[in-house]
Amino acid sequence: MKCKMLSTGLDGREHAPVWMISSPFHCDGSWWLMSEESDSLRTSPSAASLSENELLPPPEPPGYVCTLTEELVTKAREELQEKPEWRLRDVQALRDMVRKECPNLGTSLDDAFLLRFLRARKFDYDRALQLLVNYHSCRRSWPEVFHNLRPSALRDVLASGFLTVLPHTDPRGCHVLCIRPDRWIPSNYPITENIRAIYLTLEKLIQSEETQVNGIVILADYKGVSLSKASHFGPFIAKKVIGILQDGFPIRIKAVHVVNEPRIFKGIFAIIKPFLKEKIANRFFLHGSDLNSLHTNLPRSILPKEYGGTAGELDTATWSAVLLASEDDFVKEFCQPQPTCDSVLGQALLPEGLTSDAQCDDSMRAMKSQLYACY
Predict the structure, then answer these.
(1) Quick one: residue 291, left, alpha or beta (phi over 0 = left, psi -120 to 50 = alpha)?
(2) Residue 11: which residues within 8 A CB-CB, separation 6 or more?
(3) Of 134, 149, 192, 249, which has the fewest CB atoms closer than 10 Å, so is most exposed?
(4) Distance between CA 118 and CA 250 in Å, rounded?
(5) Phi and psi of 135, rounded to 5°?
């Protein structure tokens, strides 16, 4: 079927109507023809812009943008099996696994967030998923630590100087978390407040891709730690903390340096060592009061003068300010109602350290005997 839409002009020749000129539509029975009015609207710049803008969806948030240097990209490839060309594919694979196997986990599925868990488990999807499940299990199973976890709730701990992060990284690029248990006065607040401050610091550090790749180093100064203070760190607390650090948090602990430890620390270490994986246990270094031994691992240039370094006085205020400036981020992450736990968060999938108080009674009695024997 053909459609004749021509008219006769003054010159006696047939012409197409003006509204058909340059029209993309054909009169072959299967296309409709635009009217002069609708064509006028289509060709009007202002009307077209308004129409197009109304139809456009809102812009999506920017996707993942790698902040690693070329050197760190190479390090991640060699040590973590991270291939930049496959990175987003791997993240999507983990995201799909979460949606399929743990639909009620209530976790962020952002590229940057999931990437933390892949890096911590060297891009093994199954192990990364288990770490992510453990991460949320830990948070839900220990409300004394994770409820209302924000810097402003820990001002006393931060002001005490119990912990800080040194301003300089070690030669491998690891941030150094400095912990000083002697600054804690048990009558002021329970030991769980110290654990909250440590966890808060780890959450802040792991936001950096540099830390995700390089890991961290812990420097623990046990100078002046008494028997009464050490008794607060019983098997129940020890197992929970170690369970989180080993199996419930996406961070790489490259070394733990202990200095100025009293004889009693042998008893403390005897308690925690059975819970440590061999790889982590081999990364503990006890230096005593021999700071020269410490300097073979951490150079003087990054250490404060309290530890024989040349980096000035130990500064705790700067890191406290960094945490307090992140208040809104922690409120958003840790102060919102938690979704109902899914069966995937059952006790069977919890890290080994997350057990009940009753299970640790016998261990507590044994621990006290060990401490007194070492004192």
Answers:
(1) alpha
(2) none
(3) 192
(4) 8
(5) -55, -45
Question: By the 8 A CB rule, do 232 and 186 touch?
Answer: yes
Tokens of 20: 């058909």
Residue range 227-283, pLDDT digits in tens: 788 788 878 888 899 999 999 999 999 999 999 998 878 777 887 888 899 999 999
Instruction: Tabulate helix, strand, coil % of the chain (nearest 5).
Output: 55, 10, 40
H/E element holding 258? strand 253-259
**The pLDDT value given to residue 338:** 59
User: Residue 294 above 50 pLDDT?
Assistant: yes
Among left, alpha and beta (phi > 0; psi -120 to 50; other), residue 60 is: beta
Distance separating alpha carbons of residues 38 and 42, to the nearest angstrom: 6
DSSP one-letter code for 233: S
In angstroms, the CA 86 to CA 161 distance is 43
Task: Assess contact for 164 and 314: CB atoms under 8 A.
Answer: yes
pTM of the model: 0.76
CA distance 135 to 140: 9
pLDDT at 31: 35
pLDDT over threshold 60, residue 364: no
Beta strands 163-165; 14-15: pairing state: unpaired
